[in-house]
Amino acid sequence: LKNKNFKIFEEFWSERVSGFLSFAEYSSLKPILILMNKLGIYRMIFREDLVNSKCWAEPIIYLYPEKPINVTLKLDRVINLTKSDPAYHNTWNLIAHPNGEIYLPISQKKYPYLFWEGSAPIPSSPIAKDIVRQTEVHDYLENTLTKLGLSDKEKQDFERYWEAQLNNGPYYLISFYDAKQIDQVIPLHVNPKPDTVIRILMTYKRLKGKPTRFSPIRLDNYQTPQRNGFVLVEWGGIAHTLDYEYISTHR
User: Fold this and answer.
1) How far is the C-alpha of 71 from the C-alpha of 102, rounded, in Å?
2) pLDDT tens digit string along 160-216?
3) Distance between CA atoms of 132 and 90, rounded to whole angstroms?
4) pLDDT by residue (tens digit) across 103-141?
5) CB contact set of 25 (below 8 Å; sequence gap of 6+)
């Protein structure tokens, strides 16, 4: 629509988007396409990348400096935070150690990682996408996470949480995003700046039956990040509870 003041724009922004974009920013991005068919019936198509997800579940942040250092880490304003551990109050001020141990002076406690959960936008272009039989989920995650740069300990933490979510359907459509895509929608503000950043987001949909005519996205030529200097690693996922009939034939 040429008229940016059309009411549906503001209603949808208020209900689904207002936490991370102003209305002026949202409307300038052509967020909604409205089509009219031959019968005069209107259909609206919304840009998925401009909509808050239901929840970024279990994002975990690990820090590995070369020596003990003071670190300030701030989550971006696009995140509507619902949980955190240790408690997040506009920023985390901490001391990070080479073995991954995190010490918070304010609480005088040690942590193995930082945890947050909340609503946030989802990247639009996965780097990996495949349909996986439930019995093959573990092997698929093991191979994909290795290629994306997680350590054995980080893979175990990821698999311990997410494999339990992927055990009640015959097939799953699984997609992965890496730091390049995630940084575009949810940047992390870290001081001092890490030398190596590995960020992984998984989304999945449970499929009702065996799908056909699907074009996967594989990581055959993906360059696994090399861990140099001060390393930051984050992994998380988006939980979906609905079943889907997968009918798309091509990317």
Assistant:
1) 10
2) 999 988 988 899 999 999 999 999 888 999 999 999 999 999 999 888 877 677 889
3) 39
4) 999 999 999 999 998 888 788 789 999 999 999 999 999
5) none
